[in-house]
């Protein structure tokens, strides 16, 4: 039975999340699904990978999300000559103290924006592995905790672009979701010319939430109930990727955990105290597709990982679970249909 405190927490989450959504959408025109997914990943304690061609607003989305929350933000411009110590930090010998002093790197922030992450070498990319999974950095045998909340929002160009390095499988697996912004509609692009024509909309963006507010919202998301049926459904979807004939690498157990966490955040954003199979369905492609490796034959047949995930979602039986409407004041999440994949991979 839902308590008064739980309802109050969900009401507070809906109000704060609605403000953040409106704030980010004032900068990113015509992409509400992408913005909503970004906020879902933040509340689910995950990391977001934004992949698309240059010039569609990847970095703008990352900056807008960071600017909407009053927290520490650091940006890392990934280049081929970037070193791992530039990210994590380095111990420097202090002549006066006759001892080593740790100089924190750019990863010591609550929101870390990694711009064009696949332009750095795999060695440099791997410097983020420990911080993204364990929220800590180990230098010279000394462990340093990262601030709370902690989120990495990375952008990358498609690997076909010149001067890029494909992300290692371990790196991709640490991103909770991947999203593609896609090209805007003609109406949104016309409005963008009016809004972005003279000044950047980021200049007028003011935080609508504090870091401690986000920590409270994350605690609320953790309390969202996931029934045994929904958990089994998530496990069955992930297990189906491991046995699919068109995939040579399926999703990991970490992917199952990320899928359930994201479903809990999506349920909370919709004003529900429990997750539904619809949440799992809608998030399956953004959470799972970037972790999968199609076989050579599937690539020759131009079959994408997103198409395979959509096929799996349509094939795996859906458990019957009750539904409730979204909370007042929050736009309803686009549940009920498997994700459609055109120019945008969102939900």
UniProtKB/TrEMBL annotation:
State the family named in the UniProt similarity comment for this chain: Belongs to the MoxR family.
ChlI/MoxR AAA lid domain residues are 240-312
Q: Which organism is it from?
A: Streptomyces albus
Species lineage, top-down? Bacteria, Bacillati, Actinomycetota, Actinomycetes, Kitasatosporales
Write down what this protein is called. Answer: MoxR family ATPase
Listed A to Z, the keywords are: ATP-binding, Nucleotide-binding
* Pro residues compositional bias, start-end: 328-337
* PANTHER family to which the protein is assigned, alphabetical: METHANOL DEHYDROGENASE REGULATOR, MOXR FAMILY PROTEIN
Q: Does the keyword Cytoplasm apply?
A: no
Q: Which GO terms describe its molecular function?
A: ATP binding; ATP hydrolysis activity
């Amino acid at each position: 039975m839902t308590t008064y405190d739980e309802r109050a927490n969900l009401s507070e989450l809906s109000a704060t999340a609605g403000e953040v959504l409106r704030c980010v959408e004032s900068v990113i025109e015509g992409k509400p699904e992408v913005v909503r997914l970004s906020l879902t990943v933040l509340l689910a304690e995950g990391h977001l990978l934004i992949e698309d061609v240059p010039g569609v607003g990847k970095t703008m989305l990352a900056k807008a999300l960071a600017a909407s929350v009053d927290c520490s933000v650091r940006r890392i411009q990934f280049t081929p000559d970037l070193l791992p110590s530039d990210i994590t930090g380095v111990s420097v010998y202090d002549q006066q103290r006759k001892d080593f002093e740790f100089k924190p790197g750019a990863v010591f922030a609550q929101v870390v924006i990694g711009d064009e992450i696949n332009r750095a070498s795999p060695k440099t990319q791997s410097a983020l592995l420990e911080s993204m999974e364990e929220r800590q950095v180990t230098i010279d045998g000394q462990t340093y905790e990262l601030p709370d909340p902690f989120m990495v929002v990375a952008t990358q160009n498609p690997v076909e672009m010149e001067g890029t390095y494909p992300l290692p499988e371990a790196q991709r697996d640490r991103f909770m979701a991947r999203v593609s912004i896609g090209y805007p509609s003609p109406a949104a692009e016309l409005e963008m010319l009016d809004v972005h024509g003279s000044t950047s909309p980021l200049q007028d963006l003011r935080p609508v939430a504090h870091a401690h507010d986000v920590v409270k919202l994350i605690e609320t998301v953790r309390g969202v109930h996931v029934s045994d049926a929904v958990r089994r459904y998530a496990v069955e979807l992930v297990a189906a990727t491991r046995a699919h004939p068109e995939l040579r690498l399926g999703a990991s157990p970490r992917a199952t955990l990320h899928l359930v966490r994201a479903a809990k955040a999506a349920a909370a954003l919709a004003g529900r105290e429990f997750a539904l199979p619809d949440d799992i369905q809608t998030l399956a492609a953004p959470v799972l597709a970037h972790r999968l490796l199609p076989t050579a034959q599937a690539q020759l047949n131009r079959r994408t990982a997103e198409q395979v995930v959509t096929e799996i979602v349509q094939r795996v039986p859906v458990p019957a679970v009750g539904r409730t409407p979204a909370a007042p004041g929050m736009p309803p999440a686009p549940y009920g249909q498997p994700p459609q994949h055109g120019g945008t991979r969102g939900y």
